[in-house]
Amino acid sequence: MIRGVRGATTVTDDIAELILNETEILVKEIATVNNIQPEDIISVLISTTTDISSGFPAKAVRSIEGWQYVPTMCTHEMSVPNALPMCIRVLLHVNTELSQKDIRHVYLNEAVCLRPDLVQEANK
What we know:
Elements: E1 2-10, H1 16-33, E2 41-48, H2 57-62, E3 72-76, E4 87-95, E5 106-107, H3 116-122
Parallel strand pairs: 1-5, 2-3
Antiparallel strand pairs: 1-4, 2-4
Binding site for prephenate: 6, 89, 107
Enzyme class: isomerase
InterPro entries: Chorismate_mutase_AroH (IPR008243), RutC-like_sf (IPR035959)
């Protein structure tokens, strides 16, 4: 079965090192809580708000040990008024036996406000 696993995080500044660090933390947490191995991943789509432009978050994913062959792509989010700024969103397409209700989506830093329902579920 192919499932989508979501997550998001934020950075405090548009600095390449911060973007890479926070992306790596997010992706590793998503993989850990859902027991995802690199060979289970079909692809990773990463979007950033338009205020993030100093580095490619996909570089962080490809630099994780064992993830260098995972297809990864970056794009920008729509520019919507009052949207959460400095946000990095991740969607992993994975082969898994988990049902949709058992997938644990991960929201970190200021991004917890995006899906408080899922954050609460993950902490139960």
